[in-house]
Q: What sequence folds into this?
């Protein structure tokens, strides 16, 4: 599913709407160029589920954690890791017990969970001119039950943006 994001508020809104449907064990894999909106999406998501006054980018800390009524939220930014094997030092084996957001997820290599929601945030271009708008492409990776759960939620989500 592709959703046009007119501005930063739409990116925050998308994060918040997906957060409402999140559950323990969900893994949100965030893809996109530097500045595309991965952290903005994460801020919307985390702000929806927590009382956090600030949601800093975990670029330097690599991992930020948050408590919520739905369970613990882990927010990774793997930009600075040198090898996929480095993720084990961060407690990666516990992600099935958390709600996880992961920026620069491609750096996790073969250790990505088999069930995940992939979110590609990209700049919208027209004839090689970058516009201020962005788009998000949402892709479900996983088994039948997981896929059906998120497909149902996508229908509701899509209606929020048309």
A:
């Amino acid at each position: 599913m592709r959703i046009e994001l007119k501005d930063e508020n739409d990116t925050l809104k998308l994060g918040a709407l997906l957060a409402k449907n999140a559950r323990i064990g969900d893994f949100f894999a965030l893809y996109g160029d530097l500045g595309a909106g991965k952290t903005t999406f994460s801020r919307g998501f985390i702000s929806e589920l927590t009382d956090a006054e600030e949601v800093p980018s975990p670029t330097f800390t690599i991992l930020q954690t948050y408590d919520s009524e739905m369970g613990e939220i882990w927010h990774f930014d793997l930009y600075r890791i040198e090898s996929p094997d480095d993720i084990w030092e961060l407690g990666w084996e516990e992600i099935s017990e958390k709600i996880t957001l992961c920026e620069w997820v491609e750096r996790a290599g073969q250790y990505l969970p088999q069930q995940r929601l992939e979110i590609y945030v990209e700049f919208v271009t027209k004839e090689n001119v970058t516009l201020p708008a962005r788009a998000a492409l949402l892709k479900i990776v996983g088994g039948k039950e997981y896929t059906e759960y998120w497909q149902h939620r996508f229908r509701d989500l899509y209606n929020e943006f048309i």
Observations:
- The chain has three helices and seven strands.
- The beta strands are 2-5, 27-31, 63-66, 73-77, 99-103, 116-126, 129-141.
- The radius of gyration is 15 Å.
